[in-house]
Amino acid sequence: MALLIITTILWAFSFSLIGVYLAGQVDSVFSVLVRLVLAALVFLPFLRWRGYRASTLLLYMLVGMMQLGVMYLLGFEAYLYLSVPEFLLFTVMTPLYVTLIYDLLSGRGVRIGYLFSALLAVLGAAIIRYDQLSDHFWTGLILVQLSNICFAIGMVGYKRLQETRPMPQHTAFSWFYMGAVLIAIIAWLLWGNPQKLPTTHLQWGILLWLGIAASGLGYFMWNYGATQVDAGTLGIMNNMHVPAGLLVNLAIWQEQPDWPPFIIGGGLIIASLWIHRRWVR
């Protein structure tokens, strides 16, 4: 749980940094490629293949492709159509995807209690982030939902692999990032725009931070934490980035949230976590 909280704080800065300094200025595919290559380099010293079945290594690569590769490509593209608050709003369905996908992969029926606590978290995040929507509502909504589904598939898939085909997590993540980088390289060769590379030291610095800290360390801590909690708690924690992201906007960009919805929605997210841990689980 502590790792999930630390990672939530770490990621709270990413949304605004991408939306303010990278989206529309730097090619989205290039941003994804640099971010994932840097993250992969962090775990490259831990790459091992002896003693593991090829199918296991391929599965870890596959979840990396989904959770980071495809998810980032869709997510960065969505920033072209959405403001940061809209992007945050459209991520509130992730807890539902996490709990439903985990139940499907586990071969059990949908658990109503898990679904209820996830719905509370979704409602809380929606209360916080409901805002005037732009003309690109549907395009942005579809892109973010596809991105969220890929994130949930990868995250739950990693959790299930650690349950059924365990390996040391630093080794697992070396293959996880190999898969993510592979899909990013293919995307760059197909759709990359070399005319829109970073032009300032600030943009390069943000890419370095996103690659090494937010991705390299952040996703390791998040997925490691995901293996230590149940699917319901994991789903709920996915929506904690909404109030965290707003507080970052307040502290750095002085963007005041609408305090009554912020307090009500944030309280509902915390309440959903407490209800889930106290009664549902």
UniProtKB/TrEMBL annotation:
Protein's membrane topology: Multi-pass membrane protein
Repeat listed as a keyword: yes
Keyword Oxidoreductase: no
The EamA domain, residue ranges: 3-129, 139-275
Any Pfam family hit: EamA
InterPro entries noted in UniProt: CO/AA/NH_transpt (IPR004779), Diverse_Substrate_Transporter (IPR051258), EamA_dom (IPR000620), EmrE-like (IPR037185)
The protein, known as: EamA family transporter
Top-level division of the source organism's lineage: Bacteria
